[in-house]
Structures are given as C-alpha cells and as structure tokens.
Amino acid sequence: MKKIILLLVLGATMFACGVPKTVQESRKVIKGYWNLDKITYNQSGNFNVTMFNDTSTECFEGTTWRFIPNNNTGVYSVNDANCPTGDRNFVFTIQEIDPNTGLYDFLLKPTNAKNKSEDDRGFRLQLKQLNANSMQWQQTVTLEGEPFKINMNFSKIEE
C-alpha cells in the first residue's frame, strides 16, 4: 500500500512539473519554415540595430527560419547578397509567462561561434503572437535609458 501511495505521489509530482498545454500547442504551431517579413520599432527614426550579435535589421528582413521543436533547435538563413549570407544555428525555448494573456518568454541562443553572445545565455524575447500563419516576437532593450522595443513579424512558409 505504501508503494502505491508513493507511486501516486511521484506521478502527480511529475505531471505537475510537465510542460504546460499552451506551450505544447505553441511548439506544434511554430514547427516548420517561417519568413521574417518586417522589423519595426516602437519609436520613429533611423537606428543602427544589430540583431543577435550577428548583423543589421536590414539583413534580417527576408531571412528564412526553420524551427524543429522536438529537439528545440533551428536555423535561420540570411539571403540578402549585400549581407553576410549563410545559415546560423540556434536553440530555443518557449517558457510560459501568463496563460491568461498568452504572452511567453522566448529564449533564443545562437550556437554558431560567430554570433554567440558574450555571456553565452542567449537572447530573451516575448512571443507576442503566434498562430498557424503568423508570429510576432518583441525584444525590449534600453536606448538612452529608456525601453526600446524591436518587433519582428513572421509569416509561415510551410510546415
């Protein structure tokens, strides 16, 4: 009887520590190929922004991304001939923040030596919107002591 109770307690603990259902659903939706269509800012003006310690936002617009959620890896490809072209590998994690609002933290960690962050922790973004056809990320950085938001808008190419 003690063994049965112990197994029930262990099972309940493992179930409670599992991945939330909304995150599991997000992993299914994010799977596949995406195009980064547009990058915008919450302020007007001309800004020299380098994304993920890699290249400029102008070079990121038009990149193609592949997400493989069963092992949390992916690759994005810079295709613009005026930019440093090629594939960049990364790992990603979707972490639930608030199931009521549907907002998530999204951690992207480059695995190529060229664009690894200095502290090797990756880049935290908010997954602001995700459905079968589109996705939006938002990264908040500091510019002149004020929050500066970078919005990245994706469209689904194929699964």
TrEMBL record:
Stored InterPro entries: Lipocalin-like (IPR024311)
State the signal peptide span. 1-18
Which Pfam families does the record cross-reference, listed alphabetically? Lipocalin_4
* Keyword Signal attributed: yes
Keyword match Signal: yes
Q: Where is the Lipocalin-like domain?
A: 30-137
Q: Which UniProt keywords apply?
A: Signal
Full protein name: Lipocalin
The record lists the organism as: Cochleicola gelatinilyticus
Top-level taxonomy: Bacteria, Pseudomonadati, Bacteroidota, Flavobacteriia, Flavobacteriales
